[in-house]
Amino acid sequence: MRLFKLLLLSSCLTLSLVRATEPITPVPAGATLRVATVQIRVAPDHRDWTYQLGEPTHFKVSVTADNEPIEAVTISYSVGPETMPAATKTVTVPLDGLVIDGGTMKEPGFLRCTVTADIAGRVYKGAGTAAFAPEKIAAYQVEPADFDAFWQAEKSKLAKIPVESRLTLLPDACTDKVNVYHVSFPTLGGPEKPTNPARVYGILCEPKAPGHYPAVLKVPGAHVRPYFGDKELAARGVITLEIGISGVPVNLPKEVYDALDAGALNTYWMYNLDDRETYYYHRVFLGCIRANDFLATREMWDGKNLLVMGASQGGQLAIATAALDSRVTGLCALHPAFCDVAAELHGRAGGFPHPFRPDPVTSQPSIHSTPAKIATATYYDTVNFARRLKVPGYYTWGYNDDVCPPTSTYAAYNVITAPKQLGLTLELSHSYTPEQAEAVNNWVVKFLGLK
C-alpha cells in the first residue's frame, strides 16, 4: 500500500459522506448516552449511476445513525449540473427515505444532487451524481496553433542547462535494501527570471542490490508539503523519485511548508496566468522533464522503463510529462486537475483550479476571465496534453468529485487515443478507498513486471 499512501497525501481530500459522533437526541440525566455515527447517503436510481441522454433520474436519500434511519430529519437539497449554481429546497425525510426527482440532461455531462442536514448542531453533507453519456463529453478547450512549437522551444532552452545534480544521503531514512537521498537539480528559471536556473528538489530511493531497474517519477498534488520518498516500491526493485514543485528542499520541518502555503505560495496556481512563459506551471512542467533527465543519469536505471504517476495536480503533471517526454513509457493519473478549464466560460464544470468559474454568489464572470489568461490556459490545459499521449495509462476518479469534477476529467480522457484503462469508484469525491489504492498498485506492479 505504500506506493499509494503518498498519493493520498498529495491530494486535497474532501469526503462525499461526512461522519462524526454526536448525541442525536436529548437523554435524561443518568441515562446511557447514545453517540451515533451519522451518515447522509444519496444514490441515483441506476445501479451504475449512468443514464442515456433524456432519461429521467431519481435520487434516493437516507439519513441514518448507527445505520438506522433518523426520524423526521429536515434536509436542504439542490439538483443541477455539477459545480454549477442550483436552487435549494427544504424538506423532511421520512423513516423509509426520500426520493427526489432529479430531472434529466439533454447534453453529455453530470447531474448532482447535494444534500445537507443540521443534526445535533453539526452540519452533515452527502451527494450523488448521475452521469449522462460521459463517453460523449467533448472538451471546450481550444488548441493553440503553435502548441507543439512552443513546448519544443521551451524544452530546447531546458536542454542547454546541465543536469548538475546534488545528492545527500539520508542515513536515518535508509533501510537494509534501499538507499535514500535528498536530491536537487537545476531547471529553467522561475516566474520572475525565466532564464535564471531554479532547482527541483526531491527524495530519491534506490535499491542497494546491484542491477538495472525501472524508474518511477512521482509528481505532487497541490499545496506545499514535505516528501519522504517511496522506499517500499524501491525495495521491490524500482528507482523512485518523488519531487516537490515549490523550489525549496523537501525535507524541512512541516511548519516551513505551512507558512509557505499560507503566505508566499498561497494559490500559486494562479501566479502569472496572463503570460505563458512566466506562468507558475511553466517552470513546473519543465521541472518534471528535468526530473526525468536526472533519472536517466542514474547508472542503475534500465534505460527502458519510466513511469510517471500522480493525483489531482499530480495527475495533471503526469499527463503533461508523458505527453512532453518521449522517454516516459507509462503513466498513472488519479482525478487529474486543470482539465478543460475553458468549460466554465460556457456554463459547464471545468477542472481545478477553476480560474474561469463564475462567482458562486453573484454569478458574475470570474475576475480571471481575461483574454490573456484564457489564452495562457490553452498551453497548460490537461486536455491538450491528453491529445498527445502515446503510452499506456491507468486513470481513476469518482463521480462525486467537486474539486476535479468528472465532466472535466472525462473531457480529457475522451481525447486520449493511446491505450487506457479507467477505474471508477462512483460515490467518491476527491478521496480514495483501499480498493482504489489496490487497483492502482496492481496496475503499476503489472506494468513494471515486478514480482
Element layout with pairings:
Layout lengths: L1 H8 L11 E3 L11 E10 L5 E2 L5 E9 L2 E2 L3 E9 L6 E6 L4 E6 L5 E11 L2 E11 L14 H13 L6 E4 L8 E10 L10 E10 L5 E6 L12 H5 L3 E5 L10 H9 L17 H18 L3 E11 L1 H12 L5 E5 L36 H7 L4 H5 L6 E5 L8 H8 L6 E5 L9 H15 L3
Parallel strand pairs: 3-10, 14-15, 14-16, 16-17, 17-18, 18-19
Antiparallel strand pairs: 1-2, 2-4, 4-5, 4-8, 6-7, 6-9, 9-10, 11-12, 12-13, 13-15
Helix pairs in contact: 5-6
Features:
451 residues; alpha/beta; five-stranded antiparallel sheet; Rossmann fold; Immunoglobulin-like
CATH superfamily of the largest domain: Alpha/Beta hydrolase fold, catalytic domain
Query: What topology, given as strand order, has the largest sheet?
Result: 11-12-13-15-14-16-17-18-19
The CATH topology of the largest domain corresponds to Rossmann fold
Total domain count: 2
H/E topology pattern = HEEEEEEEEEEHEEEEHEHHEHEHHEHEH
Secondary structure tally: strands:
19
The level-1 CATH class of the largest domain? Alpha Beta
Class from helix and strand fractions: alpha/beta
The biggest sheet amounts to: 9 strands, mixed
Quote the beta fraction: 25-35%
Distance between the termini: 15 Å
Unreliable stretches covering 5 or more consecutive residues: 1-25
Radius of gyration using CA atoms only: 23 Å
From the structure provided, what is the oligomeric state, counting identical versus distinct chains? single chain
Helix content: 10-25%
Shape: globular
Q: Under the CATH scheme, which architecture of the largest domain would be assigned? A: 3-Layer(aba) Sandwich
| Count of helix runs | 10
> What is the residue-averaged pLDDT?
91
